[in-house]
Amino acid sequence: METDPELWRRLCVGDRIRLVKIPLDFLDWPALHLETKQAYRYLLNRRRPVTVWQIDEYGMPWVEFRFRDRSGRLRHDTMAMNHGGIVLVKPRRKAKRN
Prior knowledge:
2 helices; alpha+beta
């Protein structure tokens, strides 16, 4: 699946996006925290969209998500999505009822 590496610059609050690939340089970058790598893998494996909830003062879109850690506790996390590997998710159309 082709992704637009500059899509993140056009996102608005409320847009739904899905992580479809992790930028390869992220995985080899030694300064990237293990928890951040795990969060990327989680979002990629989950295959569900997340909602942009904030655009910060630098123009970076932030998403919020939650997951269960190894002990079973629910954790909330946020992450800036200022890279490629994301796609915009189109909203589903509601079925017409007769």
